[in-house]
UniProtKB/TrEMBL annotation:
Biased composition (Low complexity): 691-701
Keywords assigned by UniProt, alphabetized: Acetylation, Coiled coil, Cytoplasm, ER-Golgi transport, Golgi apparatus, Membrane, Phosphoprotein, Protein transport, Repeat, Transport
Gene Ontology annotations for the cellular component aspect, listed alphabetically: cytosol; endoplasmic reticulum; ER to Golgi transport vesicle membrane; Golgi membrane; Golgi stack
Organism: Cyprinus carpio
UniProt biased composition (Acidic residues): 735-762
Domain Vesicle tethering protein Uso1/P115-like head positions: 175-462
Compartments, as annotated in UniProt: Cytoplasm, Cytosol; Golgi apparatus membrane
SUPFAM superfamilies reported for this sequence: ARM repeat (SSF48371)
Name listed for the protein in its UniProt record: General vesicular transport factor p115
Pfam families recorded: Arm_vescicular, Uso1_p115_C, Uso1_p115_head
Primary residence: cytoplasm
Length: 762
């Protein structure tokens, strides 16, 4: 391994040759070399040497890689996990001009394709193959291979190997099969790659190995691909036929009825793969009608196949009679197996059963024995999958026909010719059609599986007597009844399982609750014991000698005392609140008096106005008096003028006295006003204080009521707990005395004490 990293190319190349010899057929050495980082180094050398354009060194590296990976699942997994598949994509990049490839490039590319096939070989584990197929699609390797497939100028052997490689990359992989169905050939107009490949398969001028490769590719495309099977069969149905373009179905029908026996065989096998394990498409294909010639009504595809079989002389003239018959018989066996409707259609033609019995009963040559065996298989399928819908060809009548015209033992012997044929075992080995010559192309790999499945069942069905069949029918009915009963029991068991699961969950939940309750009971027992001890101590302190086995919790008495205290506080607060309300009422009355004082003030103002008016009159009278005194003729007055002056003076004196009186009243009112304003301010202040205290008292009252309610609830809960604990203690066998009994006992004890004291006094 160290030699692979040697800088001298001669040493490195000899190391490659040595490792090739060491790794041949030796799994242990293959693993050692792989885990010594051989893959990384070999891929580096291939890249350094020019990949597919490189020389003999690239070929040596590829041969060593094949030795390491072929039939070695451990190394294959290591190669995949190391992301070496992604590095292979660059090997298959080809240009537009693919002419003039050197022999070394063809060899290198051929080995590279073989390396891809080793990773996705059908003989590998299904899981490993699927993961490699997924990796090849994700990294674009499949897309690159399809590019080579549709490229022009690619050498025939490289094209053939590429077709085989693409076949195994898509085999059984839904994603890869869907991608391949979408690939179009670069033609005008574009055609699907499948159609282009089928053209090569039914063309007798194409190389035999290329036609085999195309058939293998078509088989791999349809392998476990019901969607693809439906698309192929749909191209044969009347509603989907497009006359302007060639479809896969048209090519298969053309090959099935062509003059080339190899095309007949390939088309029959390809069509059989479109029906493999697909009951829906078997029934759909019964709808296909073929126009045989002008002026004649169309016939079904099923009938046309049997018509060709019965035209033995025509097949003799065409040559390769056995190959065509074998292909058609394989198609018919695949078509009607496990499809009672197809069996009914086949038996509906009155000529088919006589033809089969005639073929089986004849003594033919060695080459025809295989045809006889396949005819026996076809007739056996008609018996095994018969639903007895045709009165003339029920299971029992067909068996009687075999016994009369062929003989049961002879029928079973002819049926056994199939598996004894030398080409049967060769075809059963691997899916790829590998034939040394066209005449050896007789058996299909998937058909060998069908023979293996049906041979034993048909033999038993034919050899059984009618009585055995009746018994078997009865047994089947009984088994069906048993199955239905078992199904019912299974459903019942499922329901019971669900119920058991639910009950288990409930049990778990109840167990959890039980544990919680048990813990609570334990705590309660502990509290009860403490309460007992406290109660007994209190009894002893009170001087009571009798042992009390009842319950009188200290907490309960404390809560009662607190409740009584709160009730007293509540009553006190109620009394205070009543006093404050009466005080506020008196203050309100004083406020009313204050309003009355305001009315007095208004009267004072009115008196002030009157006083001012009278003062103005006095002033006016005094002014008039002064004017009279200053008059020029004041010295000489008549008696009338003196009288007027006297009158004016008297009026003035009266007005002055009245004004003085009013001033005194106003002064008294002002003093009273000031006193009342002071009383009003004091009353307002007292009222505000009282209102604040009232609000506080109401708040305290509400809080007190709330606390009282809480204490009542707490006391009720405590009573309930004590009652519950009493019941539990009674259930546990403890003797519990009620509180009334205890009070009665205490009362009787007190009475006894009083009696004793009275006796002592006496």
């Amino acid at each position: 391994m160290d030699l692979l990293a040697d800088s001298r190319e001669v040493i490195r190349n000899d190391g490659l040759l040595l490792l090739q010899q060491l790794t041949k057929g030796n799994t242990a050495i293959q693993k050692i070399v792989a885990f010594e980082n051989a893959f990384e180094r070999l891929l580096e050398i291939i890249t350094e040497e020019g990949s597919s354009d490189g020389g003999i060194v690239v070929e040596d590296c590829l041969l060593l890689l094949l030795n390491l990976l072929k039939n070695n699942s451990s190394n294959q997994n290591f190669f995949k996990e190391g992301s070496y598949i992604q590095k292979m994509k660059s090997w298959f990049e080809v240009g537009d001009d693919n002419s003039g490839w050197s022999a070394q490039k063809v060899t290198n590319l051929h080995l590279m394709l073989q390396l891809v096939r080793v990773m996705v070989s059908p003989v590998n584990a299904p899981g490993a193959t699927a993961s490699c197929q997924k990796a090849m699609f994700q990294c674009g390797l499949l897309q690159q291979l399809c590019t080579i497939l549709m490229a022009t100028g690619v050498p025939a052997d490289i094209l053939t190997e590429t077709i085989n490689t693409v076949s195994e990359v898509i085999r059984g992989s839904e994603v890869n099969q869907d991608y391949f169905a979408s690939v179009n050939a670069p033609s005008n107009p574009p055609r699907p790659a499948i159609v282009v490949l089928l053209m090569s398969m039914v063309n007798e001028r194409q190389p035999f190995v290329l036609r085999c490769a195309v058939l293998y590719c078509f088989q791999c495309f349809l392998y476990k691909n019901q969607k693809g099977q439906g698309e192929i069969v749909a191209t044969l149905l009347p509603s989907t036929i497009d006359a302007s373009s060639v479809s896969a179905g048209q090519l298969l029908c053309g090959g099935l009825f062509s003059a080339d026996s190899l095309s007949n065989w390939c088309a029959a096998v390809a069509l059989a793969h479109a029906l493999q394990d697909n009951l829906t498409q078997k029934e759909q294909l019964l709808r296909v009608q073929l126009a045989t010639s002008l002026g004649k009504p169309p016939v079904s595809l099923l009938q046309q196949c049997t018509n060709i079989l019965s035209q033995g002389d025509k097949l003799e003239r065409r040559g390769s009679r056995v190959q065509t018959k074998v292909g058609l018989l394989m198609l018919l066996c695949t078509w009607i197996s496990n499809c009672p409707i197809a069996v009914m259609h086949f038996l509906h033609n009155q000529d088919n059963v006589p033809f089969l019995t005639g073929q089986i009963s004849e003594n033919l040559g060695e080459d025809e024995r295989l045809v006889q065996g396949l005819c026996a298989l076809l007739l056996g399928i008609c018996i095994y999958y018969n639903d007895n819908s045709l009165e003339n060809y029920t299971k029992e009548k067909l068996k009687q026909l075999i016994e009369k015209r062929i003989g049961k033992e002879n029928f079973v012997e002819k049926l056994g010719f199939i598996t004894k044929h030398e080409l049967y075992s060769r075809a059963a080995q691997k899916p790829q059609p590998a034939f040394s010559a066209p005449e050896h192309m007789l058996f299909d790999h998937e058909f060998t599986k069908l023979i293996k499945e049906l041979e034993g069942m048909i033999t038993k069905a034919v050899l059984k007597s009618s009585e055995d069949e009746k018994k078997e029918e009865e047994v089947k009915k009984t088994l069906e009844q048993h199955d239905s009963i078992i199904t019912q029991y299974k459903e019942l068991i499922r329901e019971q399982d669900c119920q058991i699961t639910e009950l288990k969950e409930q049990v778990a939940s109840l167990s959890s609750q039980s544990e919680t309750l048990q813990n609570t009971v334990t705590q309660q027992f502990s509290q009860i014991q403490q309460h007992r001890d406290q109660y007994n101590i209190l009894k002893l302190k009170l001087g009571k000698d009798s042992h009390v086995n009842g319950l009188q919790p200290e907490e309960r008495s404390q809560l009662r005392e607190q409740l009584e205290e709160l009730q007293r506080q509540n009553q006190l607060l109620q009394t205070q609140l009543t006093d404050r309300d009466s005080l506020i009422t008196s203050l309100v009355r004083e406020c009313v008096l204050s309003e009355r004082a305001g009315v007095c003030l208004q009267e004072v103002e009115l008196l002030r106005a009157q006083l001012q008016s009278q003062s103005a009159e006095i002033t006016e009278l005094q002014r008039e008096k002064q004017e009279l005194l200053r008059a020029p003729d004041a010295t000489v007055r008549g008696p009338g003028e003196d009288g007027v002056c006297v009158e004016l003076e008297s009026r003035l004196s009266a007005q002055t006295a009245e004004a003085q009186k009013l001033k005194e009243e106003v002064q008294a009112l002002l003093e009273r006003k000031e006193v009342m304003e002071k009383e009003l301010a004091s009353a307002s202040s007292t009222a505000a204080v009282m209102q604040t205290e009232k609000n506080q008292l109401q708040q305290e009252l509400q809080e007190s009521k709330k606390e009282q309610d809480d204490l009542l609830m707490l006391l009720a809960d405590q009573d309930q707990k004590i009652l519950s604990l009493k019941h539990r203690l009674k259930g546990l066998g403890e003797t519990i005395e009620d509180e009334d009994d205890l009070d009665a006992r205490d009362q009787s004890d007190d009475d006894d004490d009083d009696d004793d004291e009275e006796e002592c006094d006496e």
